[in-house]
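quick one, 277 residues, struct below
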Amino acid sequence: MKNLIIRATTGLFFVALILAAIVYKSYSFMALFTLITFLSLFEFYQLIRGKENIFSNIFDSLGGSILFMALFSSMGGNLFFSPATAFSLYFTYILILFISRIYSKREILKGWGYAILGQAYIALPFGLLNVIAFQPDFTGQQIYSSVMLLAFFIFIWANDTGAYLIGTWIGKHKLYPRISPKKSWEGFWGGVIFSLIAAFLFGHFYSQLFNYIEWMGLALTISIFGTWGDLCESAIKRQLDIKDSGGMFPGHGGMLDRFDSTFIAAPAAMIYLTLIF
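---
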């Protein structure tokens, strides 16, 4: 019972923080997710460094945070530096990454590979949330849309909730037992249904943005690719022989455990929105 209370309290705080940052203004979204990008990368590189003979440091985590800010600025967010400056800083990090590894006494290819993996798997998907957040208005100008971000995360949370509830209740047929033994096909379809219900509500209240079919298409995309995101993180943990990626969220695990669906769902959602706009 105590663990359930801790898990529920942590989950509510996590959801409230994300929603508040998204709704308040674009800068609060940028500040929170720059920090989340940094912490997620730091956790990832710590896990890899603990299991593999590679070198990584805080510099790699800062690099991914700079990428997030560069994409925020390039999509229309106003910062005290230009998008060109931000991307120049990021590619300076990439240059230093490659050059510095050749002077390391550890395995160079692994060092390069895992460093770039963190950028591609974590930093870039978080950065693509900016593409989802800034949508063109009728004049073609990019405007921050908290509704699009809210929809993205609510569809993910609805999918996770439906998959957990239905999977726990009637889950019998394993979805991918080699990587994630607890996931079931019943849970997968439960997650899809919960996401579609959430999309129906968005279609009712935000019909000026998308019609019902378009909202449901977005929810279905996020639900399917979010499930693959969950499986990808499960594969990483199985490879590293760990249960949780960290302990930052009591009862929920680490940063990667909380955002695993996002890493694959964000690029897929961006592609979907690009196609329908």
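The chain has a mean pLDDT of 90.
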